[in-house]
Amino acid sequence: MFRFILMLAVSLMLMTACGLQMENYQGQTSRDDVENMGMNNEATEETENPRSISKVGDTWGMKQDRELIKESAQELPGVEVKRVILEANKVWVTVDIAGEDEMSEKEKEEWKAQVEEAIYQAVPSYDIQVKIK
């Protein structure tokens, strides 16, 4: 008799657990939601990532990064970029600053820091070295 009651209780628990309607609960994530994260609203293979491999040369790449670096450094008043060298995750930027002949070493270091910060804001994925020439 005890076995019968125990089996009845276990089967009752299993049947009620399987019958729950999980999609009605707030905060529930289904497997489809997880699999489709980052996909377009349309049913396509394209992701919404602008740095995807199918868009190399249009939205990202060494040429585009070099242009971003040059533009971001030249936004500072009196700064002219002479050379940008990219190698792996490092970038060396040579700049010419108006009135640099009269600057002290401390002022030059402050300018370097400003140029590095401007470049970092544009392309944060590089280790940046700035040289004032």
UniProtKB/TrEMBL annotation:
Region (Disordered): 34-57
Keywords per UniProt: Signal
Residues in the signal sequence: 1-22
Species, as recorded: Halobacillus litoralis
Name by which UniProt lists this protein: Sporulation protein
